[in-house]
Give the backbone structure.
Amino acid sequence: MNLFSLGCLSASLLAHQIFLMQILSYTQWYHFAFMIMSIALLGFGTSGTVLSLYQKRFLKKPEISFSILPGATAIAILVTHWLSQKVALDPYLLFWQWKRLPYIIVYYLLTFFPFLLGALAIGLTFLVGQRSIGKLYFVNLVGSGLGAMLGLWGVSELRPENLPLVSSGLVLLSLLPVKSPIPIKLTPLAVFILYFFRPTTLHVSEYKSLPKTLLLPDAKIVAEKPSVTGFLQAVQSSALRFAPGLSLSFRGNIPPQTGVFNNAEMAGSLLDTNEKHEFLSYSTEALPYALVPAPRVFVAGIGTGTEALRALQGGARSVRGVELSPALVEWISPKFALNPNVAISVGNARSTLMQDLSEYDIISIPILEGFASSAAGMSALAEDYLFTVESFRLMIQRLKERGLLAISSWLKMPERSSLKILTTLIEAAEAEGLPPDTNLRAIKSWGTMTAVLSKSPFSKAQLEAFEKFRDQMSFESVSISEELLSFRERADFYRNHPFRVIPATDNKPYFSHFFEWKSLPYLFKHFGVQGIAYFELGFVILLVTLAQVIPLSFALILFPVAAKLVRPSGKVLTYFGSLGLGFLFVEMGLIQNLVLFFGHPIYAVSVVITSLLIFSGLGSLASRALYQRLPEAQKLAAYTIATLLLAILYLNSPLITLVLIAPLAFFMGIPFPVGISRLENEVLPWALSINGFMSVISTGLATLVAVEWGISWVFIGAALLYGTAALSSNFAKPQQA
Amino acid sequence: MKLALLIALCFLALAEDSFTTLRNKMVDSQIVARGISDPATVRAMRKVPRHLLVPPDKVSAAYDDGPLPIGFGQTISQPYIVALMTELSRPKPEHGVLEIGTGSGYQAAVLSEIVKEVFTIEIVPELGNQGKERLQKLGCKNVTVKIADGYYGWKEKAPFDAIIVTAAAEHIPPPLIEQLKEGGRMVIPVGHAFFVQNLVLVEKQKGGKITSRNIIPVAFVPFQREKK
């Protein structure tokens, strides 16, 4: 396969990963998407195993393989996608009904197949062109980098069902320079045209909010907007009313609203900004406006704009709101365009407050996520730099002398998120020299809690207003136990609590992760085995994914050895395994390091992936020349990478990280092609399979390390892995059995 | 011919007998064992043939310890949850009860065994019609089904001694609180229909004061509670 074809195919496979993640996040849920994609990506490793077994057959007529394999990939992308929408996939039912297992296995196979075919073509290209592996790997990496960009573009511009057309179309492009019989070229084109005119309808799980809402009387989708943060849809129905956590004292009317759905889950509602909505004041979230007159308000995560309306109704002089989703800001900004007191911008609240030195009377974090995802622990593994001790401290610093920090959340049963908000506020207050016993108050309704931390002790008038608001709304005060307020007893409280209620920090920014290994007996005893899955779903899915991926990977790595096609070499296994694991560890560590700097995870992901792949590509391009001059180039490169990683960790400065990415990535491009060039032809596919499988394992493993031990250990782990690669880099050429 | 009919009737009787055995087992192991003690509730749970209210392909699982999908993203609740919601509503023979979310009709059928009148509202027409048909076949003459938006309750029949909401919501509809009698109770699952919901008990005390209590987390799958 020539370089153009290789680049197109590499770009296609990476873009297709992003597309499938988005399609699965839309039709199912993100965490299942993660599990299914991990299995699908085993296609890369499996291609190495298949090449080990059948390389002679593939190499007999490589030109045929090079036209058939990409053609089959282009067809498989569309056909497997079409078929996958016919599978009644309800992964949630799996926790309850084991007979659903075949459905998920079929789904795994359908998503796995295009990656296997595409990776076979790439692996075969490496095998045939082993002598110029540096150049080939360069094209592979740069193609993947461009594919990542194209993937993000596709997700932000196209409807989910059209995304596979882009990845399939890219593979078709790769076929252009390939000499092959006309039918082999035309068949994928015919499938492409057919899909273009008859794209499949996506089968959204009937248990997601959107399909259920569409069952309501006269419900219709009135607007849609693809976006990098999810596919936004607006639905109108005369029976759609959204008033989360409404007080039982409210007797008025709640008007029908336009519901906003992000990836088919309810994300809030768009209210008429010209009207007064009394019900907004009947929520625990309205508490701060009862305590501070005419405040200047900052809203972290303004969502559909409800909190801005609540603040204005509560007498706010001005409201500044930031929101991560650019598409949502595009929708809500015109609604407030005529109000000069409201300013809404795209961004991360924490980064905005770091740059904006203004002081506010109220900084509010409204309830950010839907009850469902919150209750099921779906965000457990999502990094959230807003709910950390450091973030709360910054917010306290941006408050005026008598300002309030107000944070609301759903009440989860068993209680954990509201408790963790209190512990985080207490530790942040103490770190800022504020006594929590006099400066912290909280109220709860049947479903929500709002905690307010004042920069000065509450005045008598404020305490009276607090009690009046609580009683009028039929809310209750939340008592903050002595155990929590006492620094000494708090450590015991954290240790003895069945859930992880110790505050999140920037090193472990996983506020929604409540899982403790010691929770298992508690959950099992009280709620049975399904309770574990339901209350801590995100973490359970990660463990389930690793439990599937690790044994499968090792079985497939060892299969050619067991079949006596490769004589096992511990050093080859260690070297390519460490590189496979290490690359993704570095990627994840760097993204985390830069999220706050860029203000939006998407920008951090884009910068890190693109620069890593492109500079690694350049390193790969230079690897041959380096290796010829320096026989230990791969060892030196691996040691340099380990050193640079430790330097980034030690210096802990986003600017330095940005400067060091280029040299780091350049060196990261060297060990793989140099290692490949040292291998005998028969062993090369085995090395590819080791590298491919370990890359998949590393995604889950790096997350596990970050969640359990902190992001600094992801860097240390990456440095250790590259160090290990350096130590095992002098592998003797293994002999064919 | 007569012999064939006789044999068929015998088989039917045997099948019914086996369902009765399964139902009694369900009540003993899933309901009484978990602490449901209200005699009227237990009696009703023993009597209502759940297998006649589930889709035909789910009949064999009708008495399993869990909810079952009935289409349109809805489920027939786990028997324990139906019993718990019934018991929490403290039904009496003279009561008029409003149910929001007819679904399969099972909750209405259980209530109809205990109270004087059951009014049930379903927003999805297909489900409402199916539920109505099933309840008619069961002979639940004191149940009235209406296809409408349950959010507004049933003003003409209000006030109610109890309201049971079987469809999850993210807030408690004010019209339902209005239509609850003083001293009445409302049981409502709050949250997403497919994930973890909080089962909330709302009480309207004499004088109109409203209080609420979170009872247990409930979800699509059963959460085995400790034996009380």
Summary: The longest strand of chain A covers residues 399-410.
